[in-house]
Write a structure and sequence with these properties.
This protein has seven helices and no strands. The protein is an all-alpha fold and 240 residues long.
Length: 240
Amino acid sequence: MVLRLMLPLMAIMVLSGCGTMADMNAALTPPGTAPSASSAPTGPRLLTKEESDQQSHAQWKAEEEKRQVEAARRRADREASAHRGRVYGLTNGITGKMDQPPHLEAMDTPSDARTTVVKPVLDLQAQLRQYDADAADKLQARVDAWSAGVDKQIADEEQCRQTPQCMGDRIALPLCDSIADRRDAAQSIAKERSNPGGVVDLSVLHDLGERIQQDNAAIADLKRQYAATTHRPFSEGSCK
């Protein structure tokens, strides 16, 4: 009965343009009836202060965790870079020392090389092993072979010093070099004096003359050493 009475009213409202769906819903709602949930106005609910604070704290916590992760990553990168640099430095220090000749002939006691030459390399290798065992393992075979090689050179040097012929041959090398240099200087003087133009560079002649004097002094000293070592005089004809 109510619906039959309301329909003409709804038609009048629609035709007149004065009604909306909400108005029609209100017209259909019996008096004393609460509006349904579907007809209630909808929209975002305002947060309470406590909820807003919780949300802000959660955002801050998430950002702080991101900052901590990034800081940890940067710290790990720095540590890895420092590690690589340390390994590189130790490795280069070891190989650099091994690449240098021990110069045993200049030592008063060849066996001192075990302390002055070998030990520093072994100490660096021990440091490398404490710092990076894998890097030390890669070098170990080379270090062992090098150390054994130095031991052999020490033994050979000690044997050479007990053999007059070996020591004589060693003295003969710089002796022959000085003889050859004196000969070259004398030839240069002769060439300068034979200048077709008759012009002689006195400065050049002076320098060549001093060079010959230095060679003569070295030759005389080395010949004395050779005779004292081999118990026979040195023959310049033995120079190649």
